[in-house]
Fold this sequence. Notes:
The protein is of the alpha/beta class. The protein folds into 3 domains: 53-378, Metal-dependent hydrolases (TIM Barrel), CATH 3.20.20.140; 397-457 and 711-814, Aspartate Aminotransferase, domain 1, CATH 3.90.1150.10; 461-708, Type I PLP-dependent aspartate aminotransferase-like (Major domain) (Aspartate Aminotransferase, domain 2), CATH 3.40.640.
Amino acid sequence: xxxxxxxINHELVTVRHGWTAPPGLPQPRTQTPLxxxxxxxxxKMVHGLDVRxxxxxxxxxxxxxxxxxxxxxxxxxxxxxHLYDLSHLAPNTxxxxxxxxxxxxxxHVFTETMQKWMGDRLIRDGLFFPMPVRDLDCQAAxxxxxxxxxxxxxxxxxxxxxxxDVPEDVEAEVARQGFAGFKVYHVFADREDTFHAExxxxxxEWAWQIADRHAxxxxxxxxxxxxxxDPRNQSYIQKYCRRYPNAKLILAHAARGFNSxxxxxxxxxxxxxxxxxFDTSVVCEPSALESIIDSFGVTRLxxxxxxxxxxxxxxxxSVGDGFYWIYDHNAEWKNWQHAQxxxxxxxxxxxxxxxxxxxxxxxxxxxxxxxxxxxxxxGLNSPxxxxxxxSNVQSQYQAAKQIIPGGTQLLSKRPEMFAxxxxxxxxEQAIGCEVVDTDGKRYIDMSHCGILSCILGFxxxxxxxxxxxxxxxxxxxxQQTHDEVTLAQLLIExxxxxxxxxxxxxxxxxxxxxxxxxxxxxxxxxxxxxxxHGWHDWYLAANLAPASDSYQLDAHLLAxxxxxxVPPELGGTVATFRYNQIEDFEAAIARCGDDLAGxxxxxxxSVDPQPGFLExxxxxxxxxxxxxxxxxxxxxxxLCLGGAHRQYxxxxxxxxxxxxxxxxxxxxxxxxxxxxxxxxxxxxISSTYWTEGIGPAAAVASIRKMMRVDVPAHLxxxxxxxxxxxxxxxxxxxxxxxVGGRPASCNMNFDHPDSAAxxxxxxxxxxxxxxxxxxxxxxxxxxxxxxxxxxxxxxDVVFGELAGAIRSGNVASHLRGPIKHATFQRLTx
Length: 829
């Protein structure tokens, strides 16, 4: 049988009578790689790459209908498919045998061919580009593509480019033809062995620059033998995605995951990049796809067929540290009764189906992979379509307020605390420092980051792994998991003054337990309290005290906390004092008299203790023989490993932890001296869900990671850049900006009568620019310098608008909705 070998990939494409190997597929050993362009009869080229000659069987449709029809959604989108004219692939070949039929493999051929096995799940819209071969007439191929897609407004095209193209001409052609971006390919690298080409050899920097200026996509099939696990590829992607954040990089074939381990091992290196996407095309093993979902969630993976490769019969296989493509022609199938080679398109869909099943995805997630992600990337949700642009997340919250009093479970998460009718109440996905709301809009979180709970970043992979293991092995039984013992040991190791620990599943509960222990230990009732400590009766009882501003909780972080429903009999059981005010503290102690049960305070929040302040309180606790309780729920782990009190050399009798201790999973802890903790034995303190296994598993994983990684140093570095940037931009725009807090958790405000309106306007405009931003900023380990740089660049623009609003004399007129709430308020709308 005659063969035609065409150098169109890092391996080879063999063109036989009725068979063509696709890009990325190795060939029989009898073939000889080409090192120079060849001259072939056009008739053989037409015949070999003409998908209309590929055989299809009724069994193809039967298999798809039985295994995949219910999986593939209606109105899907194919993000990786080739449309081409065979005459453009090798324009300098001889034409001894003129073809007797049209040479165009256009959109109609695409749909007619795919329908043979997909039936009523046929995908019509997609992202199309020419077939990449070394001798391709790129100009003609691009013109053919553009002309073909003129009749298909739901689709987009990518312009095939070469590294030596003239950038100005390329940029002009992109604008003229309306291309969505570029398709680049290693066969255009200026070397013989293009399989070993580094990415810059065929994806030049000028292409990145154009893509960044116009927010274009770049489809890249990476090479080098180990694909994404090769450090050179990792460094290249990191460098250029960060340098050109508006460019949208699509890593074809699941980052060329033909050997699935290459993607699995390398995916961590690019986790957190906001401008990287992946397609599923002709990947026939689920592991690579699973690793992408695990690291990037469901919003970055997009279905692709790689038509016409989808119409071949075979599949890729991981083999050692490489991969192999097995076909109908390079394996012995004749006498094998258990299987016959199937269409690559079906094999890759089966792999995707298995990945979705393994990752427990729901229908909405699958719909994203098969269409929404690609359409969002390409801007195909038309701004003129009122349905497509109606905010689902806002209507969801309005409905929620009818059935959930207060709208949310946490005051600090109410949209009214940020920008009413603008702030997205619900997230669909949160990974690293990126959040995707239920409208599919993506944001970088530069605000509270889970209300200080996710210090390692959202969905930290190590913490998630521990939690998923616990879920798979069982979260609840008649016993408890040993993780709670390990957690107690870790906390005591970090805080050697403590000998025992008890656990809850929230900070508020843990504070209630701590005050119960103090009262049980002393047999007394009154508490001297400084700072914010939650919603429980023991704390809100402070607002039942005689009317005096210095006694009320308005001076302690959150103003307006109503004590409605708190038994009035608790009035007088809490005396408050202000931080760093020794006289206030002594007055509170005096008000408690001989009934003082304990002293409750945060060792620090936004400022350091003045010299001698904590030491004086420690001496008073010893003198009164009452427990000193440090609330470390918000302050711990951000300034140093463990409780913030460790850096002040003042030891409490009890310390309470939650939030960052378990990186977003429900967990609370009370540690203390044995002599005081034993009071737990004398008071009934018990709850079923304090024995579930997820919380301890998450906390153990989080703490172990924080023992290895210097998280406070990271937060100090980036937080300092944020605070310095605020001051610089405030001065630049002549804003009355007040910067407070410390780098690990900083805050800003405006010394202006319209400060709340200014913060609301800032938040609203930053949402428009892709950031969750507010008057406070508590960064995480997942934040990197490029996130902060982009945030400050956006804030520069917004601060200019705030300055203009102030000059106008009517800040509120610049808002699109109501002004943010500054205190606890009953929702009336």
